[in-house]
Specification:
With 515 residues, the chain is of the alpha+beta class. It contains eleven helices and 13 strands. Strands 2-12-4-5-6-9-8 form a seven-stranded antiparallel β-sheet. Strands 1, 3, 7, 10, 11 and 13 form a six-stranded antiparallel β-sheet that branches. A hairpin with a 4-residue loop joins strand 10 and strand 11. The two termini are 38 Å apart.
């Protein structure tokens, strides 16, 4: 029944995943097409890209107009930072509105403000630096739209401006610029925001705005960000490693065919899915780097493999932790509940991943789905730890009760404790430690996080496969060859099952008394 339920839920997951892909389409990757309609947000992140020398970001803002009468000010903020820790600082810490501006220390990014001035007589976009301790000599940045210079009223300071075009028919504004990095000292992670500053006494929801933006970012001939350029090669090498692991595991299964269990086939499917996922990811990055957008057919195939890989990973780890098919052939009610929880959670996590990957960061629900993905993924990681803990507790109880199989049970207990440590370390590194590493990495070395994550996964798979490989001396399932009396310890009833047994015994006693 469990197998049938898994098949039904997997089929439902694939249909839901394909439905989401067909509904929202595939993201335009490094060629962003953003449409904002009736929005009230004070800041919107439009793009994030690591630019090297001769790299550029081209921005075309069109059809900008305010739906209601408002004295609020609008514009763009360009943020330059060297690490992810200072990237997106505007979004999280600082308000670019003059009345609410807060200073920054030396570690914070450099900022350029592009204020939209809709004065009917002289419409323009004023470019100025937001003053902080990191003064930015942005003369190393070349603007395609020729910057105009005008003196202030006192005749001393100058302001750089871009042309702001007004469409009489649509009553909307538009402007365009292309920013190119000319100096190596200006190489950085560039983040572009749209901002809205309410006028004094005006609520944040007094007026909404509409605009569309086309944003293209490129480094030389590649559309990949500075920290993504090596990923095409890295994922292909990782795919080769997983192919070798698949071949070795299949050879091991063939050599020890008499000692195989269903879990070994699941483990083979998992490594094969990882191989396919790595190759497809490499192909995906190749098309993005070459054409600026992925090929839709490859992306859909990648989403399907991503779902299968996630399901196989968590189901395999949960079943190994439970000792199912090796040490025991019956799952307790709690263990069944874990399996019934992990599968739908993985479907939700994959749907969230598809929505995030297929959406622009400027969309309203983007951050919400990102939080859902992180939360659900952590729930799945926590869920697979409990079966290992239960198995360790059951083996400890069996050690106290058994007389003639104590040494064998102790060897199994040691193996489960090692597996528990492996799972905890794997989760800690991939879900926590690498996130901190990403914060401190320079923008052009963010690929190191992906590489370390894949190396950690390969080591985890290799050690787990070695410890639970199909050979007769493996203490993990020696008890399969024992007699029925010895097998009783392989399934120690939990509290629910104990209550059921007590109720049955009580009913039998009452029936005996009646007789």
């Amino acid at each position: 029944r469990i197998q049938i339920l898994f098949e039904i839920m997997s089929e439902v997951g694939l249909r839901v995943l394909l439905g989401v892909v067909m509904l929202i389409g595939v993201t335009s990757a490094r060629i962003h097409e953003i449409n904002i309609d009736s929005d009230y947000r004070q800041s919107i992140m439009l793009s994030n890209f690591g630019l090297l020398r001769e790299g550029f970001i081209e921005v075309d803002v069109k059809s900008f107009k305010i739906k209601d009468s408002s004295q609020a000010s609008y514009g763009l903020v360009l943020e330059s930072s060297q690490t992810a820790s200072s990237a997106q600082y505007v979004e999280n810490h600082i308000n670019v509105c003059p009345s609410q501006f807060r200073g920054m220390d030396d570690k914070q990014p450099k900022l350029l403000k592009m204020a939209i001035d809709t004065n009917p007589e002289h419409p323009k976009v004023d470019i100025e630096q937001i003053k902080n301790r990191n003064d930015w000599d942005y003369s190393g940045l070349s603007f395609l739209d020729e910057l105009k210079t005008s003196k202030d009223s006192d005749g001393t300071s100058k302001t750089n401006t871009l042309t702001l075009n007004y469409d009489e028919k649509e009553k909307s504004y538009s402007f365009h610029f292309k920013l190119t990095v000319l100096k190596a000292t200006d190489e950085a992670e560039f983040t572009l925001y749209f901002y809205r500053c309410p006028a004094d006494g005006e609520s944040s929801y007094d007026a909404s705005y509409i605009f569309s933006a086309n944003i293209t970012s490129k480094n030389g001939k590649s559309y990949l960000s500075a920290g993504e350029k090596p990923l095409t090669f890295i994922y292909m090498v990782i795919g080769v490693v997983y192919f070798i692991m698949t071949w070795v595991w299949v050879r091991t299964m063939i050599h020890h065919s008499s000692n195989l269990f269903k879990i070994h086939y699941l483990m083979a499917g998992l490594v094969c899915a990882k191989f396919l996922a790595s190759v497809l990811h490499s192909i995906d990055f190749y098309f993005i780097g070459t054409h600026g957008r992925p090929e839709e057919a490859w992306v859909i195939l990648w989403y399907i493999i991503h779902l299968v890989r996630g399901l196989l990973l968590f189901i395999s780890l949960a079943l190994i932790g439970m000792g199912f098919a090796f040490v025991k052939h019956v799952l307790s009610s709690n263990e069944k509940m874990v399996l019934m929880t992990v599968v739908p959670l993985q479907i939700i996590a994959n749907v969230a991943y598809v929505i995030i990957d297929s959406s622009e960061e400027a969309e309203v629900n983007y951050s919400t789905w990102k939080k859902i993905l992180i939360f659900v993924d952590l729930l799945c990681c926590g869920a697979i730890i409990f079966p290992v803990m239960w198995s360790i507790r059951h083996l400890q109880q069996a050690t106290e009760r058994s007389d003639n199989k104590t040494s064998l049970i102790l060897s199994q207990l040691k193996l489960f404790r090692q597996f528990y440590v492996l799972v905890v370390v794997y989760i800690y590194i991939t879900r926590i430690a690498l996130q901190f590493l990403e914060v401190i990495l320079p923008f052009q070395y963010t690929w190191c996080k992906i590489l370390l994550e894949e190396i950690t996964t390969i080591v985890f798979f290799t050690v787990t496969g070695f410890k639970f490989r199909p050979y007769i001396q493996n203490p993990y399932y020696k008890l399969v060859d024992a007699d029925e009396n010895d097998l009783e310890m392989s399934h120690i009833p939990d509290e629910t099952e104990r209550d059921t047994l007590r109720n049955r015994a009580a009913r039998l006693e009452s029936s005996d008394e009646e007789v």
